[in-house]
Amino acid sequence: MTEPSIAMIRDEALIATHLATAQRLRIQIHTAHPFHKDALFGDWAVTGVFENQEQYVGPLSELGLQLVPSAGVAIVKSLPGHRSLMSEAYKALQALKDQAAAVTLSLNDPAAGKLSLAEAQQAMQECQPWTNWIVRAVLKKGQVLPITELDEDWLESEFAGFSASPISSTHAATSEA
């Protein structure tokens, strides 16, 4: 298997929109160069623009990202210690847990349960498509754990393919089909 070239890594992996996991913002990377020509994986010097229009010039690692080999190509992943998914994923998991708690609450206090359920469902709607993806992942795998016991580790493991990836409305539409 041949090692990917600098041009291939730059053009196919780095020059794109990523989730800067350190800043929790999307960034469009425009230029990228390895710090050392013999070290293609790890840290690179990059320039780009965050979704808030702030310019960035610096190492990939300060974005909370790293370049790693994967099946003969390079992919961008979150550095350890950074949440690897978009904040909507974590909010969706919490909203699903809140919905389960609201249903339980409504057994003892129907009025309070109804209010809590409405709040949880609103939060679930705001976190689409993540809410649907999480529910499908749980149902597809026949999880033996209730949703209330799922945690961030499960979420990041289940959706590892989305690490450091921003989810656009087009991506959401194609993933839901």
From TrEMBL:
Keywords: Plasmid
Name this polypeptide is given: Uncharacterized protein
Species of provenance: Pseudomonas aeruginosa
